[in-house]
Amino acid sequence: MAENRAIEPDSLNQAARLLFDLADSMGDDFPAVGDAMADAAEQGKEALPESSNAIGNLNERWTGYESKDMRENATTFAEYLAVFAADATEIEEYTAADFLRVADPELFGSEQRAAAVDEDSVSTTYQGPV
Amino acid sequence: MAVQWGDLAGADLGPLETLRDQWRGYVDRLEEYGNVLAEDVAKHLGEDVFEGDDAVAARARLDRFQTAVTGDVLDRAAAIRDALADQHDALKGELDRHESITTEAGNAGLSIAADGWVSLARPEQTVMGVEETEAQQQLIIDTAAAAAACVEAFALADAQLAAALNAAWEVPSELPMPIGENPEMQDIPTGPEHVADWWAGLDPMERDAYLEAFPDLLGGLDGMPADARNTANEATLEREVDALDAEVDSLERQLADMDARGVPEDSAERLMLQEELAAVQAKHDEAKGLQTNIATLEEEGKDVYLLDYSLEGDGQAVVSIGNPDTADNTAVHVPGTYSELSNFGTQMNRADTMYEDALKAAPDEETAVIAWLGYDAPDSVPQASNPQQAHDATGDLSSFMYGLEASHQGGDSHTSVMGHSYGSTVAGDTVRTYEGVADELITVASPGTSANSVEELNIDEDHVWSTTAEGDAIELPQDLGLLGHDATNDGFGGNEFTSDAVGADGGQIHGGYWRDVDENGDGEPDRPNEARSNIANIITGNTDKVGLVE
């Protein structure tokens, strides 16, 4: 196995931050599409019975896919990179707060990140892949 | 119920227009996501900033993610956007036509009912001529036809939009899975080579997810790397030991409860419970014994891998001392009659002895020796006179050997399959039945290889090695030839190597190939059995140093 080495840990942090941001963007962007699908499926039942039904099904499938396969992929990938970057900076044990601070030093404390760092998560040792 | 003329009157395409606009924006955003992944994120994960296996896996994961987002996902989203736009325009055109037909019909004094029936809005009081009547009737017919065509075209656009959206139901399947999220058993291939390729294509997070989800399956899957198999099997074994612990406690509590209730010692209820407790306790001890034997070798500083095990029946286990995936030389030792999990420690000791001997024979090379009890060995001598249990094991042993080859890293390993006693029938039958099982076949105290001559084996006779010490109790069944023959028989072919007879009788000599020789009879070991150095030289490829029987 080739030894793993983060030559520039900050670069990994940057990648992690971009992925966290990407996941956030996905979370911000898609709900409006989902709402529009739900509305169209409901409003078109009389005049557009077939496409209304298809829109309803599409909404269910794509919403699940978008949140699970896309957003979670971006998030878990970001977590992995963040932990690897933290490892490279010789942090021995990560709490959720450490993890987020390392992963996203500028955003730490912002509304989105602060919401994630509640009392419980701060006291929980991070168990992610290292 | 089919769409009718009246439905179009109340149709509102506003929500559909909103949806179309939302998908237009979403497709744009997907393109931006793809750009972020392809350019911005990739820039921060380059080879100049991150190196090693994890780095390679991370870049591969990023590539798959980006390819999926900008490929399959974007294609489907764009198809949805285009379908919404096209069919919206078609639907809008039919609604405009609906309005036009309604207006023209009204101007002509006609009324169109919700079901498309056209009639005079106000029946004329004046008497019309024949020509006027015919013209009016024709107008009614034409209006009804136009209304029907409009409804039909509207319904067609509805159906076409539905078909396009349904086609986009199937979500893209090429994205890497989220960590810890439902890896699918159906994605795990069969066949050692396919398994090795599949595993090599997963990134570390995906591997963790699969190991967590399917340790029972992956622990025994040939083609998986040794360290992954070991991780899976150790976790499963630990869980099984805990479960057996709990079961023993429960049965003991039930017996204590019987004591308290004064249930007689010889009652059927108590005897059954005692029998069950003894069986569970025995199984527990076998499992704990396997853990202890592994731990003992690890405490000596050895790399030990639990490559497979089962607590079913007599129990089975496959343990490697040394990593077969990186070893220059790998030997697989197949034990014989009476072997089961309860006495597997003996086979691990023999494998350990061979491992130590191999290190001495080839100190600059890496060697792994595997004790392979991956079959149901005979429980008695009469059972051992039947070749069926050996033949039943050939599929599993060949698969295991192919798996070693598939998971081996960096070039070929020199492989030997060695059987002791009935285990040599298993090894011989496997080499007779399958091609390319190993580079060397070694039989020790063999009752037969299932073949009558080396020509029946799928291996060159220069690589077939056998020994039987003088006075070994196996000589009698060898003479009977019920299980075929080996190189110690005249005319079989192959190489017969030397070994010492260590033990006071034929039974002890049969198990004495790994024991030291007490040459002066003072009860102290003086040197190893010659068989050991010969076996070590064979498995390390130093075959010119093997001592042959003249």
TrEMBL record, chain A:
Top-level division of the source organism's lineage: Bacteria
Protein name, UniProt field: Uncharacterized protein
Source organism: Glycomyces paridis
UniProtKB/TrEMBL annotation, chain B:
Record's compositionally biased regions (Basic and acidic residues): 515-530
Residues forming coiled coils: 234-300
InterPro entries: AB_hydrolase_fold (IPR029058), DUF1023 (IPR010427)
Ranges of compositional bias, category Polar residues: 531-543
Protein name (Swiss-Prot/TrEMBL): DUF1023 domain-containing protein
Species assigned in the record: Glycomyces paridis
Domain of life according to the entry: Bacteria
Sorted UniProt keywords: Coiled coil
Segments for region (Disordered): 515-550
Residues in DUF1023 domain copies: 314-477
SUPFAM superfamilies: alpha/beta-Hydrolases
